[in-house]
Design brief:
With 175 residues, this protein is α+β, with helices and mostly antiparallel strands. The protein is 53% helix and 14% strand.
């Protein structure tokens, strides 16, 4: 019975590895890019610093919206074109993340634009967790893939241990 289990474990391990390879490649490559997002501005724009960071922002929301509307790449007409605001009082900036993946960094004191960059980290994150492919793919491809990866890890450890176990048994038998 154990011999069949060992053979079946190897067979399952091979097929599971093949089936999991493509989603796993997406997760690995996107994960590596996310690990270095702060080091490469291609992935995520570096944080700017205001010339005069203050404890309390002086620019109004209306001024920030007007500033964002003045940047053609942002393609902002109303607040609904903005995905989120990331306010960093200690740096004196606000990051305006547009729905079209552009990011504006503005001075909280003057509402002046400090940088305009395309932000890829959100897209890469959606690839990494599978949400880019839709909720069904996230639930029915990436979740089973993660489960298969866990089982591959466990069966791989078992298959790695088998030769060691045999050697130890043979060494004991020789004594």
């Amino acid at each position: 019975m154990l011999k069949n289990f060992n053979r079946d474990c190897r067979r399952w391990h091979r097929w599971a590895a093949i089936l999991a390879s493509l989603p796993l490649l997406v997760v690995i490559v996107s994960g590596l890019l996310l690990q270095v997002k702060k080091q490469f501005s291609w992935v995520q724009p570096p944080n700017q610093q205001s010339s005069a960071p203050s404890d309390a922002p002086r620019a109004s929301w209306d001024e920030l919206l007007a500033t964002a509307q003045s940047v053609p790449e942002a393609n902002i007409d109303t607040w609904s074109d903005i995905d989120r605001l990331d306010v960093r009082p200690s740096k004196g900036i606000v990051k305006i993340q547009c729905k079209n993946s552009w990011e504006l960094q503005c001075d909280l004191s003057t509402a002046k634009v400090l940088s305009v960059n395309f932000r890829r980290s959100d897209f890469i994150e959606s690839l990494h967790d599978g949400s880019f492919f839709g909720d069904n793919a996230k639930l029915w491809v990436f979740l089973p893939n993660g489960t298969a990866l866990l089982l591959l890890w466990m069966s791989g450890l078992y298959l790695w241990w088998l030769p060691w176990k045999s050697r130890l048994r043979r060494a004991k038998a020789k004594k």
